[in-house]
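User: I'm curious whether this sequence folds into something compact or stays loose and floppy. Could you predict its structure so I can see for myself?
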Amino acid sequence: MILNRYERMIARRYLLPGKGEGFIFLVAAISLMAVALGVAALIIVMSVMNGFRAELFDKIVGLNGHAIVQGYDGRLSNWQQIADAARKTPGVTSALPLIEQPLMASANGRVEGVLVRGMRIQDLRSNRTINDNVKSGDLRSVTPGSGRIAIGSRLAEMLGAFPGSEIALISPEGRSTVVGTVPRIVSYTVGATFEVGVYDYDKAFVVMPMEDAQTLLMLGDEVGMIEIQTTNPDRVHEILAPLEPVVRGRGIIVDWRQMNSALFEALEIERIAMFVVLSLIVLVAVFNILSSLIMLVRAKTRDIAILRTMGASRQGMMKVFVTVGVIIGSLGIVLGLILGAIFLFFRQGVVDVIQAMTGQNLWDPSVRFLSELPSKTDPFEVTAIVLIALILSFLATLYPAWKAASTDPVQVLRYE
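Assistant: Here's the prediction. I'll summarize afterward.
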């Protein structure tokens, strides 16, 4: 839509407050701020939702892989054959043996449920999710036969443990006696604590070398599962389909979607619902643009009639008022992008300030899974938000512009 010189001059004049037009200008300013807040709210919420999903996915996959081959009875015999077959499967990048068993841990008179994980020492050293998040101690001290383990930071807090503390792990698989099975209790020294950022893991994980876990659980040379990483997590089912005949009869293949289906489906539904609900804010702002333009047309009826008698066309009048409305919407969108970017940059600080002011824990990791408020802005979603706001702003200008173009100069100026 190209405006000629006089149309640009009129549009610029109508955008600025004139004598007796302060109220109209106030309504237009409110409309601009409403669009800005709506766009900012959409960007902030969608970025936080995307960040939450991405961060949760990275943490979960970093510890559990894209899929696991789980033995039927918690034991996977001849696991080397399955691991070799998995590594040879196109699209598979790694296949690592693991032992994972829920047990009880005791220290300082406290008892907590834990999830013991046994890993080969080379796999433990190369796991960035654990290595990059060591809070205290030295993970290099955790070696086979050393009697040292690494535990989650939340678990350390609950047990009152720290590097150098003694922790007893209690396994129900103990020795049989005349009075029944006696639980197996083995003491270990805490070598390091880590915090991956997922509350459920940080409060339960106990990591130890594979050999120590096999001894504790009396597994011999067997493992509990094989963790598999692929080149494309969204195609993990297709990639691992050739591996199913090898696994059949000894275990099952469970991918990341099945392991966390309820959580990720709930996140996706909430993400869509939030987008729809928050889009209503932009719609309300657009109605404000509509009302401010209607008032502007009513206030400028005499001016429009004079312009029409001077040769201004109906199309020219429509372009003027469409331009005014679109500029208000565009300025609101730009301001919304700036507000959204500022909030996302300082998001954790904002949460901390609100928590300090209200005394409420707004981001309880035991509820939110993650320790901090995440964010990941999707350029395609931002583009979609901007386009939706622009289209709605344009549509809101059509009726006032049509009313302005329909002004009959004879009727308006008859008694002037």
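Summary: The chain has 18 helices and ten strands. Residues 22-64 form the longest helix (43 residues).
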